[in-house]
Amino acid sequence: MSQIIDGKAVSAEVRKRVAHQTKKLKEKGIIPGLAVIIVGDDPASQVYVRNKEKACAEVGFYSEKFALPANTTQEELNCLVKELNGREEINGILCQLPLPSHLDDKEVINLIDPVKDVDAFHPVNVGAIMIGDYHFLPCTPAGVMELIHATGVEIEGKKAVVVGRSNIVGKPMAMLLLHANATVEITHSKTKNLSDITKEADILVAAIGKAKFITADMVKEGAVVIDVGMNRDENAKLCGDVDFESVKDKCSYITPVPGGVGPMTISMLMENTLTAAKLQNGIKD
Ligand code: GUN
């Protein structure tokens, strides 16, 4: 029987830490500021953005939302990003993805000043992560690391397997585990004999986007299982990439969906925005 990792509780701890540091910054006259851009009316994105604004209020940040119509042009979006790059009270800029198909997300990401890139999506920040010399970590992988640390399980020397190779989760996730001295293997949809590999994992991170894809027979007895997935099952119920019901009896720790990785992502965004405010004001600690 495994222990369920409580993402809400770990997330609340991170927000408490950020709120405390924000209070100290305010004594110096600095209020961290986050700009969130959303284009169009994708309902899932609207929920994410609302939650990001709520989190900003909770930790004491200034936040500004830019809700642009679906027919916004690339030029208009680029102009907004450039304007925000130049605004002193805005320390972090986040453009909610996905963008409508006529807009190029790479172009927007490349325009965000790397010191304000609180998603850590800009190539400069991606490169910094690669060499282990970074200010910002992408929010989801950073949240996963916090959850693994919360179990108290040592990462060093362990075999970690990441299922999924996206730029936002899989690839940076592997890097962070590597920096923590795990032996890391990245697997993906074209990997042969996937379960032979996942069965060797002491730490298994599932980020594939397929409902209940990881079943008990693919998991090592006593593994730490982290589920990044956010899918709908056959009854339209929210579920992860891991078949929670069967896997929970085989592993040592497991994250639920919802209530696992999800709540961490926004908390790590708050942490990145705080870091951005400190960096831009020359505050070290
Ligand atoms: N859409 C879904 N997740 C994210 C995220 O972490 N950042 C941005 N910018 N868009 C997203």
Q: What oligomeric state is this? A: single chain
Overall pLDDT confidence:
97
The parts where pLDDT drops under 50 for at least 5 residues are none
The largest pleated sheet is described as: 6 strands, parallel
Note the beta-strand portion: 15-25%
How many alpha or pi helices? 10
For the record, give the distance between the C-alpha atoms at the N and C termini, rounded to a whole number: 40 Å
Q: Assign a percent range to the helix content.
A: 40-55%
Helix and strand composition category: alpha/beta
What is the topology?
Blueprint: E1 3-4, H1 7-27, E2 33-39, H2 43-59, E3 62-68, H3 74-85, E4 92-95, H4 105-111, H5 123-130, H6 139-151, E5 159-163, H7 170-179, E6 183-187, H8 194-198, E7 203-206, E8 224-227, E9 231-232, E10 238-239, H9 244-247, E11 253-254, H10 261-280
Helix pairs in contact: 1-10, 2-10, 6-7, 6-10
What can you see in these coordinates?
By secondary structure, the chain is α/β, with parallel strands linked by helices. Helices cover 41% and strands 15% of the residues. It is built from 10 helices and 11 strands. Helix 7 (170-179) links the parallel strand 5 and strand 6 (183-187). The protein binds guanine. Guanine (GUN) binds at residues 94-97, 119, 139, 265.
What distinguishing features does this structure have?
3-stranded parallel β-sheet; single chain; 10 helices; about 280 residues
Brief overview:
The protein has 285 residues and is an alpha/beta fold. The protein is built from ten helices and eleven strands. The protein has helices at 7-27, 43-59, 74-85, 105-111, 123-130, 139-151, 170-179, 194-198, 244-247, 261-280; strands spanning 3-4, 33-39, 62-68, 92-95, 159-163, 183-187, 203-206, 224-227, 231-232, 238-239, 253-254.
